[in-house]
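Need residues for this backbone.
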């Protein structure tokens, strides 16, 4: 704890002490050589950040790591605005005036919004936006959103990315083609730049604080690296506001932004690599919760969860009529659809069982122990397999049915196997009961059977069940009351 506090204090204090020292060095007039160096340094940093951030965003979309995607979008916007910042260097695309490199720019970016300084105005506005917009994305990562709804989040992420791209392209076009338009806006007139800087710094410090809490909960080094990145960016914002243009202190904020990009992107790559390891056991939604502080133990623990068994009907008869390659293709289609339904509802795919699967819901722990999510999965499987069967029937091909058994109870959770290869699984009577409930689907001629223990955890206004009665299950002393999902079983979000 003490070491962590000292590290945070050092990240905040050391750049500011260096800034105070650099501000004592007088700003002298510079020439085109310095402008060219600025172009090369900033453009290379921007392109590197853009390339790596796009790679991270692509991997985050593939793994449905939406919190990570927000950070990647933040750095993408930073890179884009910084590219405009580089291209707005006087004498590159925009013309340089007599005062572009003058030594009287000791007031920094604030006050540059007039025609004589049109290039520098675009330079300054781009600098402020290169931190303000990313800070908004970094903070959005901690909003209380439903991060377990991948389809909806994916649609929203695409909309946000499209809007962001449009804004960046429009800003770049206006700033570089008509810099006077931006120069005449009061964006750099006090107190606007100071307010923008204050908001950016506050958001970055908030993101660093929230990331510190996640680091304390998980002790994962990637969270510490992101804390460092956010603090360095906050320091960069301070340096940007008070540093004279072309002065040594002005260059410090460029270096701080480079250091922050390196720290953050390194952390993101570590996070995505760790996610790949966790996704051997867990769905993307559960991995996201584990990576951000929810406890889960791989060494074995007792937990009340909901177990789901799903199995296909008629696949054996189908195998007798078709070639093995065709059978495998059909099974992959059906069983793969069932597995995707499990992932979409935050479940853990425990294992594939030939033409079926076993899934676990309620890890990490939550009040309903995963029962609503398991029932939503059963309803989703019903709809998805119904769609597949409709397509096969239209082609004159045989249909395949399914059965699902759901039970809630205590199990032992943990990784079983060798250190080199293991599976995260559940062991106990609850698993056996769920499997036997699935086999009862044949007896009752239904596609789902739920135990009373699972049904008791459901919201009656959200899920509609039909009581099947009480039945004897092997291994149980007393009859078990069972239910099935009605034809319109899932009435809304539960």
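Answer:
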């Amino acid at each position: 704890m003490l070491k962590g506090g000292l590290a945070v204090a050092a990240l905040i204090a050391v750049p500011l002490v260096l800034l105070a020292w650099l501000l004592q060095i007088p700003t002298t007039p510079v020439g085109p050589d310095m402008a060219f160096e600025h172009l090369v340094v900033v453009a290379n940093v921007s392109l590197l950040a853009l390339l790596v951030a796009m790679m991270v965003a692509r991997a985050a979309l593939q793994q449905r790591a939406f919190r990570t995607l927000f950070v990647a979008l933040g750095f993408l916007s930073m890179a884009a605005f910084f590219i405009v910042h580089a291209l707005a260097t006087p004498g590159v695309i925009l013309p340089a005036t007599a005062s572009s490199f003058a030594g009287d720019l000791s007031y920094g970016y604030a006050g540059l919004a007039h025609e004589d300084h049109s290039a520098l105005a675009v330079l300054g506005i781009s600098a402020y936006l290169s931190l303000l917009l990313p800070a908004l994305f970094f903070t959005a990562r901690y909003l209380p959103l439903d991060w377990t709804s991948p389809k909806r989040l994916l649609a929203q992420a695409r909309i946000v990315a499209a809007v962001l791209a449009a804004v960046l392209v429009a800003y770049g076009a206006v700033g570089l083609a008509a810099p006077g338009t931006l120069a005449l806006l009061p964006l750099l007139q006090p107190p606007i730049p100071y307010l923008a800087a204050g908001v950016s710094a506050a958001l970055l410090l908030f993101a660093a604080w929230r990331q510190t809490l996640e680091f304390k909960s998980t002790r994962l080094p990637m969270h510490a690296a992101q804390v460092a990145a956010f603090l360095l960016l906050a320091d960069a914002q301070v340096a940007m506001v008070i540093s004279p243009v072309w002065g040594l202190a002005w260059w410090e904020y460029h270096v701080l932004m480079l250091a922050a990009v390196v720290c953050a992107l390194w952390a993101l790559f570590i996070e995505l690599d760790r996610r790949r390891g966790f996704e051997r056991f867990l769905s993307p939604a559960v991995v996201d919760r584990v990576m951000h502080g929810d406890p889960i133990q791989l060494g074995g623990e007792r937990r009340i969860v909901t177990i789901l068994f799903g199995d296909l009907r008629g696949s054996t008869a189908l195998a007798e009529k078709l070639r093995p390659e065709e059978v495998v293709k059909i099974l992959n289609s059906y069983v793969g659809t069932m597995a995707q339904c499990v992932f979409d509802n935050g479940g853990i795919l425990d294992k594939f069982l030939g033409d079926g699967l076993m899934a676990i819901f309620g890890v990490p722990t939550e009040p309903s122990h995963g029962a609503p999510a398991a029932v939503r999965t059963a309803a989703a499987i019903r709809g998805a397999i119904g769609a597949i069967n409709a397509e096969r029937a239209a082609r004159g091909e045989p249909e395949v049915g399914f059965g699902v058994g759901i039970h809630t109870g205590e199990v032992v959770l943990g990784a079983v196997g060798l250190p080199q290869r293991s599976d995260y699984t559940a062991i106990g009577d609850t698993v056996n009961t769920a499997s036997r409930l699935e086999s009862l689907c044949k007896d009752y001629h239904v596609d789902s059977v739920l135990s009373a223990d699972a049904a008791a955890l459901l919201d009656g206004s959200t899920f509609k069940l039909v009581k099947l009665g009480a039945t004897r299950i092997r291994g149980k002393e007393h009859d078990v009351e069972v239910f099935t999902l009605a034809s319109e079983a899932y009435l809304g979000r539960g």
